[in-house]
Write a sequence for this structure.
């Protein structure tokens, strides 16, 4: 043990600085070429989710944001956004609302169609859960912004007020941020 009880496991008595959260997240991403279709480089967060320390640090960083901890509900976009939303909701003592693909929720629902970088899609939320609620929206990756822009509109149509948006990774070269309007966006890693 070193002075003040800090051992080598903390990295504090090492010459090398500890990696930032963004660096840790980047080290836990896996690039998948031509998925889900040719020409798309998919950012797989499964290795990040499997690393408890990095996943927990990511959730902790989002939980420190007033937009998250002041929200009534955390909305997660299908499917990886569900994982982030559930963990964040637990951390800030909020409820969770799933933003699902069309046909996955029982009626009544509110839905919105939108364009993806590789096709089109439709999402839904349950009627009656969101009216008058403040909602923090999360997803794993912000790419072109189509999904999150559609979700912002969908949550608004269902009666919610968006307090902010959090993503683990933002692919800035796709300019998705521009499609989100005035919503406050926090990206833990910007590529």
């Amino acid at each position: 043990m070193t002075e003040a009880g800090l051992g080598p496991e903390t990295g504090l008595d090492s010459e090398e600085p500890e990696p930032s959260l963004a660096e840790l997240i980047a080290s836990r991403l896996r690039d998948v070429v031509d998925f889900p279709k040719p020409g798309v480089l998919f950012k797989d967060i499964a290795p990040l989710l499997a690393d408890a320390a990095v996943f927990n640090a990511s959730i902790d960083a989002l939980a420190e944001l007033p937009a998250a901890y002041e929200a009534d509900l955390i909305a997660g976009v299908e499917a990886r956004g569900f994982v982030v939303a559930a963990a964040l909701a637990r951390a800030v003592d909020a409820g969770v609302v799933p933003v699902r693909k069309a046909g996955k929720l029982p009626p009544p629902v509110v839905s919105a169609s939108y364009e993806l970088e590789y096709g089109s899609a439709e999402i839904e939320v349950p009627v009656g859960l969101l009216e008058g609620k403040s909602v923090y929206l999360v997803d794993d990756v912000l790419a072109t912004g189509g999904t999150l822009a559609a979700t912002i509109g969908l949550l608004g149509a269902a009666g919610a007020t968006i307090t902010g948006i959090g993503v683990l990774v933002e692919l800035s070269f796709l300019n998705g941020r521009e499609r989100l309007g005035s919503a406050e966006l926090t990206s833990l890693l910007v590529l």
In short: Confidence is low (pLDDT under 50) at residues 1-8. The first helix runs from residue 21 to 27. The CA atoms of residues 86 and 169 lie 18 Å apart.
